[in-house]
Protein backbone atom coordinates (compact mmCIF):
# COMPACT_ATOMS: atom_id res chain seq x y z
CA UNK A 1 0.00 0.00 0.00
CA UNK A 2 1.20 3.51 -0.84
CA UNK A 3 1.74 5.49 2.36
CA UNK A 4 1.19 8.77 0.54
CA UNK A 5 -2.39 7.93 -0.26
CA UNK A 6 -4.70 9.23 -1.54
CA UNK A 7 -6.22 9.85 1.89
CA UNK A 8 -9.37 11.79 2.71
CA UNK A 9 -8.60 12.75 6.32
CA UNK A 10 -4.82 12.36 6.49
CA UNK A 11 -1.90 14.21 4.95
CA UNK A 12 1.12 11.92 4.73
CA UNK A 13 4.67 12.92 3.77
CA UNK A 14 7.55 10.48 3.42
CA UNK A 15 10.80 12.40 3.75
CA UNK A 16 14.49 11.60 3.67
CA UNK A 17 16.00 9.11 6.06
CA UNK A 18 12.84 7.09 6.53
CA UNK A 19 10.90 9.77 8.46
CA UNK A 20 7.15 9.75 7.76
CA UNK A 21 4.89 12.62 8.86
CA UNK A 22 1.18 11.84 9.22
CA UNK A 23 -1.08 14.84 9.83
CA UNK A 24 -4.62 14.53 11.04
CA UNK A 25 -6.16 16.63 8.29
CA UNK A 26 -9.58 17.98 9.21
CA UNK A 27 -8.60 21.49 10.32
CA UNK A 28 -12.13 22.83 9.77
CA UNK A 29 -13.26 20.37 12.50
CA UNK A 30 -10.18 20.85 14.73
CA UNK A 31 -8.90 17.53 13.33
CA UNK A 32 -11.68 15.65 15.12
CA UNK A 33 -11.67 11.88 14.73
CA UNK A 34 -14.35 10.76 12.28
CA UNK A 35 -15.27 7.22 11.20
CA UNK A 36 -13.35 7.81 7.97
CA UNK A 37 -10.26 8.93 9.90
CA UNK A 38 -10.50 5.85 12.12
CA UNK A 39 -10.61 3.60 9.07
CA UNK A 40 -7.75 5.40 7.31
CA UNK A 41 -5.49 5.33 10.38
CA UNK A 42 -6.26 1.63 10.82
CA UNK A 43 -4.86 1.14 7.31
CA UNK A 44 -2.00 3.61 7.62
CA UNK A 45 -0.25 2.11 10.66
CA UNK A 46 0.13 -1.46 9.33
CA UNK A 47 1.33 -0.01 6.01
CA UNK A 48 3.89 2.14 7.81
CA UNK A 49 5.10 -0.83 9.83
CA UNK A 50 5.46 -2.99 6.70
CA UNK A 51 7.22 -0.37 4.54
CA UNK A 52 10.95 -1.18 4.51
CA UNK A 53 11.84 2.45 3.79
CA UNK A 54 9.83 3.88 6.70
CA UNK A 55 11.77 4.17 9.96
CA UNK A 56 10.05 6.71 12.24
CA UNK A 57 6.59 8.33 12.24
CA UNK A 58 5.68 11.82 13.42
CA UNK A 59 1.99 12.36 14.21
CA UNK A 60 0.72 15.95 14.23
CA UNK A 61 -2.32 18.00 13.29
CA UNK A 62 -3.07 20.21 10.29
CA UNK A 63 -3.48 23.93 10.91
CA UNK A 64 -2.50 26.01 13.92
CA UNK A 65 -5.58 25.79 16.14
CA UNK A 66 -5.74 22.13 17.10
CA UNK A 67 -3.84 18.89 17.17
CA UNK A 68 -6.99 16.81 17.68
CA UNK A 69 -10.22 17.73 19.47
CA UNK A 70 -11.22 14.10 20.03
CA UNK A 71 -14.11 12.20 18.50
CA UNK A 72 -16.28 14.25 16.15
CA UNK A 73 -19.16 15.45 18.36
CA UNK A 74 -21.65 15.21 15.51
CA UNK A 75 -20.82 11.55 15.09
CA UNK A 76 -20.99 10.73 18.80
CA UNK A 77 -24.36 12.48 19.16
CA UNK A 78 -25.90 10.59 16.23
CA UNK A 79 -28.79 8.69 17.84
CA UNK A 80 -29.28 6.63 14.68
CA UNK A 81 -26.10 4.72 15.70
CA UNK A 82 -24.88 5.14 12.12
CA UNK A 83 -21.33 5.71 13.35
CA UNK A 84 -19.39 2.63 12.38
CA UNK A 85 -15.96 2.51 13.97
CA UNK A 86 -16.56 4.75 16.99
CA UNK A 87 -17.86 2.21 19.52
CA UNK A 88 -18.73 -0.94 17.60
CA UNK A 89 -15.25 -2.46 17.66
CA UNK A 90 -11.94 -2.01 19.43
CA UNK A 91 -9.91 0.93 18.20
CA UNK A 92 -7.06 0.41 15.76
CA UNK A 93 -6.04 3.99 15.00
CA UNK A 94 -2.80 4.42 16.98
CA UNK A 95 0.61 2.74 16.67
CA UNK A 96 0.20 0.96 20.01
CA UNK A 97 -3.23 -0.39 19.09
CA UNK A 98 -1.74 -1.74 15.84
CA UNK A 99 1.32 -3.22 17.59
CA UNK A 100 3.63 -1.14 15.39
CA UNK A 101 7.27 -2.14 15.90
CA UNK A 102 8.76 1.16 14.73
CA UNK A 103 9.19 4.38 16.74
CA UNK A 104 6.63 7.17 16.67
CA UNK A 105 6.62 10.74 17.99
CA UNK A 106 3.55 12.85 18.73
CA UNK A 107 3.91 16.58 18.00
CA UNK A 108 1.01 18.46 19.59
CA UNK A 109 0.48 21.73 17.74
CA UNK A 110 -2.63 23.05 19.53
CA UNK A 111 -5.64 21.75 21.44
CA UNK A 112 -5.37 18.06 22.35
CA UNK A 113 -8.66 16.90 23.82
CA UNK A 114 -10.40 13.63 24.61
CA UNK A 115 -9.58 11.03 21.98
CA UNK A 116 -6.62 13.12 20.87
CA UNK A 117 -4.92 11.93 24.06
CA UNK A 118 -4.74 8.47 22.51
CA UNK A 119 -1.84 9.69 20.39
CA UNK A 120 -0.04 11.11 23.43
CA UNK A 121 -0.54 7.81 25.25
CA UNK A 122 0.19 5.46 22.36
CA UNK A 123 3.28 6.98 20.73
CA UNK A 124 6.78 6.61 22.18
CA UNK A 125 7.02 10.21 23.35
CA UNK A 126 5.40 13.59 22.80
CA UNK A 127 6.65 17.12 22.23
CA UNK A 128 4.42 20.17 22.21
CA UNK A 129 4.17 23.70 20.95
CA UNK A 130 4.10 26.37 23.65
CA UNK A 131 0.53 27.08 22.55
CA UNK A 132 -0.66 23.50 23.17
CA UNK A 133 -3.35 22.66 25.72
CA UNK A 134 -4.54 19.29 26.98
CA UNK A 135 -7.92 18.29 28.42
CA UNK A 136 -10.18 15.28 28.79
CA UNK A 137 -13.79 16.46 28.46
CA UNK A 138 -15.43 12.99 28.31
CA UNK A 139 -17.33 13.13 31.61
CA UNK A 140 -18.44 16.71 30.95
CA UNK A 141 -20.35 15.54 27.87
CA UNK A 142 -21.64 12.30 29.38
CA UNK A 143 -19.02 9.96 27.95
CA UNK A 144 -16.74 7.41 29.61
CA UNK A 145 -13.02 8.17 29.70
CA UNK A 146 -11.16 4.88 29.77
CA UNK A 147 -8.73 3.61 27.14
CA UNK A 148 -6.43 6.61 26.69
CA UNK A 149 -6.45 7.49 30.38
CA UNK A 150 -5.61 3.92 31.39
CA UNK A 151 -2.48 3.98 29.24
CA UNK A 152 -1.54 7.49 30.38
CA UNK A 153 -1.82 6.46 34.04
CA UNK A 154 1.03 4.01 33.46
CA UNK A 155 3.28 6.72 32.06
CA UNK A 156 2.56 9.86 34.11
CA UNK A 157 1.50 10.36 37.75
CA UNK A 158 -1.79 8.59 38.44
CA UNK A 159 -3.27 11.51 40.37
CA UNK A 160 -2.64 13.92 37.51
CA UNK A 161 -4.53 11.66 35.10
CA UNK A 162 -7.39 11.20 37.58
CA UNK A 163 -7.65 14.96 38.11
CA UNK A 164 -7.75 15.64 34.36
CA UNK A 165 -10.35 12.91 33.85
CA UNK A 166 -12.64 13.85 36.75
CA UNK A 167 -12.60 17.62 36.19
CA UNK A 168 -13.31 17.28 32.48
CA UNK A 169 -13.67 20.63 30.77
CA UNK A 170 -12.71 22.43 33.97
CA UNK A 171 -9.12 21.16 33.80
CA UNK A 172 -7.05 22.60 30.95
CA UNK A 173 -3.36 21.79 31.12
CA UNK A 174 -1.04 24.19 29.37
CA UNK A 175 2.23 23.15 27.73
CA UNK A 176 4.37 24.17 30.70
CA UNK A 177 2.31 22.11 33.13
CA UNK A 178 2.23 19.20 30.69
CA UNK A 179 6.03 19.23 30.69
CA UNK A 180 6.19 19.34 34.49
CA UNK A 181 3.92 16.32 34.87
CA UNK A 182 5.67 14.30 32.17
CA UNK A 183 2.79 14.32 29.70
CA UNK A 184 5.24 15.76 27.14
CA UNK A 185 9.03 15.64 27.02
CA UNK A 186 9.76 19.03 25.45
CA UNK A 187 8.05 22.34 24.70
CA UNK A 188 9.15 24.52 21.78
CA UNK A 189 7.81 27.68 20.11
CA UNK A 190 4.92 26.80 17.82
CA UNK A 191 6.81 27.90 14.70
CA UNK A 192 9.62 25.45 15.50
CA UNK A 193 7.51 22.40 16.39
CA UNK A 194 7.59 20.57 13.08
CA UNK A 195 11.30 21.08 12.48
CA UNK A 196 12.13 19.95 16.02
CA UNK A 197 9.98 16.84 15.60
CA UNK A 198 11.75 16.06 12.33
CA UNK A 199 15.14 16.64 13.95
CA UNK A 200 14.32 14.14 16.69
CA UNK A 201 12.91 11.65 14.20
CA UNK A 202 16.03 11.83 12.04
CA UNK A 203 18.21 11.21 15.09
CA UNK A 204 16.15 8.11 15.91
CA UNK A 205 16.22 6.93 12.31
CA UNK A 206 20.03 6.98 12.41
CA UNK A 207 20.02 4.18 14.99
CA UNK A 208 19.95 0.45 14.37
CA UNK A 209 16.37 -0.50 13.39
CA UNK A 210 16.81 -3.96 14.91
CA UNK A 211 18.17 -2.64 18.20
CA UNK A 212 15.43 0.00 18.38
CA UNK A 213 12.68 -2.55 17.71
CA UNK A 214 13.99 -4.89 20.41
CA UNK A 215 14.48 -2.04 22.90
CA UNK A 216 10.97 -0.71 22.33
CA UNK A 217 9.52 -4.17 22.75
CA UNK A 218 10.99 -4.80 26.18
CA UNK A 219 10.35 -1.28 27.55
CA UNK A 220 6.70 -1.17 26.44
CA UNK A 221 6.21 -4.73 27.66
CA UNK A 222 7.59 -3.76 31.07
CA UNK A 223 4.65 -1.40 31.66
CA UNK A 224 2.40 -4.45 32.06
CA UNK A 225 4.70 -6.46 34.33
CA UNK A 226 6.27 -6.38 37.77
CA UNK A 227 9.91 -5.26 37.71
CA UNK A 228 11.35 -8.74 38.29
CA UNK A 229 9.33 -10.28 35.46
CA UNK A 230 10.18 -7.43 33.09
CA UNK A 231 13.92 -7.84 33.72
CA UNK A 232 13.68 -11.61 33.36
CA UNK A 233 12.03 -11.28 29.95
CA UNK A 234 14.31 -8.47 28.74
CA UNK A 235 17.57 -10.28 29.40
CA UNK A 236 17.19 -12.98 26.70
CA UNK A 237 16.20 -10.30 24.16
CA UNK A 238 19.36 -8.35 24.97
CA UNK A 239 21.53 -11.46 24.76
CA UNK A 240 20.00 -12.69 21.50
CA UNK A 241 20.64 -9.38 19.79
CA UNK A 242 24.20 -9.13 21.11
CA UNK A 243 25.07 -12.69 20.18
CA UNK A 244 23.39 -13.01 16.80
CA UNK A 245 22.52 -9.70 15.15
CA UNK A 246 25.23 -8.09 12.95
CA UNK A 247 24.28 -4.58 14.10
CA UNK A 248 25.68 -5.41 17.55
CA UNK A 249 29.15 -5.67 15.98
CA UNK A 250 28.72 -3.03 13.30
CA UNK A 251 27.86 -0.25 15.79
CA UNK A 252 31.08 -0.40 17.86
CA UNK A 253 33.17 -1.04 14.74
CA UNK A 254 31.78 2.04 12.98
CA UNK A 255 32.30 4.14 16.12
CA UNK A 256 35.99 3.27 16.36
CA UNK A 257 36.50 3.66 12.61
CA UNK A 258 34.80 7.10 12.76
CA UNK A 259 32.29 6.37 10.02
CA UNK A 260 28.49 6.09 9.76
CA UNK A 261 27.28 2.57 10.59
CA UNK A 262 25.83 0.36 7.87
CA UNK A 263 22.92 -1.35 9.58
CA UNK A 264 21.79 -4.78 8.46
From TrEMBL:
Pfam families assigned to the protein according to its UniProt record, in alphabetical order: ECH_1
Example of a GO MF term: enoyl-CoA hydratase activity
Region (Disordered): 244-264
Gene Ontology terms describing biological process: fatty acid beta-oxidation
Keyword field: Lyase
Gene3D superfamilies in UniProt: 2-enoyl-CoA Hydratase, Chain A, domain 1 (3.90.226.10), Lyase 2-enoyl-coa Hydratase, Chain A, domain 2 (1.10.12.10)
Catalytic activity reported: a 4-saturated-(3S)-3-hydroxyacyl-CoA = a (3E)-enoyl-CoA + H2O; a (3S)-3-hydroxyacyl-CoA = a (2E)-enoyl-CoA + H2O
Family stated for the protein in its record: Belongs to the enoyl-CoA hydratase/isomerase family.
Protein name: Crotonase
Source organism of this protein record: Amycolatopsis bartoniae
Amino acid sequence: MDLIGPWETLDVEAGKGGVVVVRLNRPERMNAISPVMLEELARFWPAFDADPDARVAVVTGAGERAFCSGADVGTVADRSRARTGIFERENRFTPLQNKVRKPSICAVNGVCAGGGLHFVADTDFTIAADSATFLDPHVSVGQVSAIETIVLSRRVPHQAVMRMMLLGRAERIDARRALEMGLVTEVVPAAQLQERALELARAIAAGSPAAIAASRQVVWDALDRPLHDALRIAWPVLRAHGDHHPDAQEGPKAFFEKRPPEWA
